[in-house]
């Protein structure tokens, strides 16, 4: 409950819950089929079309609601895949020693210097089908290296701690040491890596759709809406309702994930807990608010000695 009591975490969870709910029930509550055409061409918001229509008379609200599921599915699935790979490679290469650990470390270094987005574009372009599952797997399999490097560095700093040495001296198996001694201390890093990967996956999928990858068929996401808006010169036509809702949804989702990340950092870090502030009382009864990174000089009143 202390995590939920954090204002940043509470706002992030609320926004994320709204988007997840939209992803679950969005296609069911859409007023129209997102691909259905009508005679209301580039119509502004009205009672019939709350967010207006496209150049083909398609309802933008229906496209936005239907596209939320694709964005959330790709983001969460890619985040899970990348987090699992980063955990396996990073913790294993950080705790073990020898040729196997060096090979895993070199592998993560290779993936680290490969530009992820161009690689994703090439892979998705040559595949016969580029559905949501395929895009999520491609993003997850190409975006784990940074998290693996961070987890490896943290594991290297933990493997020689006293409690790990004690567990090793008592004959604990390696998998038990990793699972019960090392990984609990990496919870914040794992959670932060997962959220960062979800943000990257969401932006990557939207970017792919915006540049024309995976825009065929009846598959909709927020990037597809922006793709057609840009292609049909929505800004030049003054059709702000065509691109503003999708852009606002992207910004709100990114804000929700960022707030969750900040909330996790403050929850696990004593220095950041309580927004990084703590109150200290002096002998005079005054209250001094200490900030992280600053060491205030407290003025003590003169006491009369007997």
UniProtKB/TrEMBL annotation:
What is one term from the GO cellular component aspect held by the record?
Answer: plasma membrane
Pfam families associated with the record: BPD_transp_1 (PF00528), OppC_N (PF12911)
Query: Where primarily located?
Result: membrane
Every copy of the ABC transmembrane type-1 domain together lies at 72-261
**Which GO molecular function, any one, fits this protein according to its record?**
dipeptide transmembrane transporter activity
Membrane topology recorded in Swiss-Prot or TrEMBL = Multi-pass membrane protein
- For whether the record's keyword set contains Transmembrane helix, the answer is yes
Q: Which domain of life is it from?
A: Bacteria
- Keyword Acetylation applies: no
Which residues are listed as membrane-spanning?
9-29, 74-96, 108-127, 133-151, 186-213, 240-264
What is its subcellular localisation?
A: Cell membrane
UniProt xrefs under InterPro entries: BP-dependent_transpt_permease, MetI-like, MetI-like_sf, OppC_N
Q: Which UniProt keywords apply?
A: Cell membrane, Membrane, Transmembrane, Transmembrane helix, Transport
Q: Which family does it belong to?
A: Belongs to the binding-protein-dependent transport system permease family.
Name of the featured protein: Peptide/nickel transport system permease protein
Q: Which organism is it from?
A: Actinocrispum wychmicini
